[in-house]
Write a structure and sequence with these properties.
single chain, 153 residues, alpha+beta, 2 helices, 7 strands, HotDog_dom_sf, acyl-CoA hydrolase activity, Thioestr_dom, PAAI_dom
């Protein structure tokens, strides 16, 4: 996929047609160190980013912690911009993120953030989506990304 930044390892997952890795490669950076393995799949005009919750992602009520869900959403904004959109916003930053938690996440099931690009202007990308586990909605969200003004950030 030509829109995926060079610092993202985007490789087909063996035995899982349509799924690709979404990995920054450095295990000490936030994406990998905190959220773990991430996978991505394009679904028409949408992008599905999947994480596999672990015990460290659970709260004391044995549900996926809201902070882990927010981290997934933030990365999903960027994955959606690159996979489902037409942007090459490698140096983009989150300007706004609005989230409504509507259900509890089960730490024993994959957690998916499904995004779509609503609109893209010269410098801004508007994204919305839901965090789901199968048919169960965990959260709804919308966000605005600002693309970098220079290639070197």
């Amino acid at each position: 996929m030509s829109n995926v930044p060079s610092f993202i390892r985007y490789e087909a997952i063996d035995g899982e047609p349509g799924w690709y890795s979404w990995d920054v490669g450095d295990e000490t950076l936030y994406n990998r160190a905190v959220l773990g393995e991430l996978r991505v799949r394009k679904e028409g005009a949408r992008c599905r980013l999947r994480m596999f919750p672990q015990r460290k992602h659970a709260n004391v009520q044995k549900m996926v912690h809201g902070g882990a869900t927010l981290g997934l959403i933030d990365i999903a904004l960027f994955a959606g911009m690159h996979v489902a959109g037409d942007s090459d916003g490698s140096g983009a930053v989150t300007l706004e993120l609005s989230t409504q938690f509507v259900g509890a996440g089960d730490p024993d099931k994959p957690l998916d953030a499904v995004t779509e690009v609503v609109r893209e202007t010269g410098r801004l990308v508007f994204v919305r989506g839901e965090v789901v586990q199968e048919e169960h909605v965990v959260a709804a969200f919308s966000g605005i990304l600002r693309k970098s003004s220079s290639p070197d950030r």
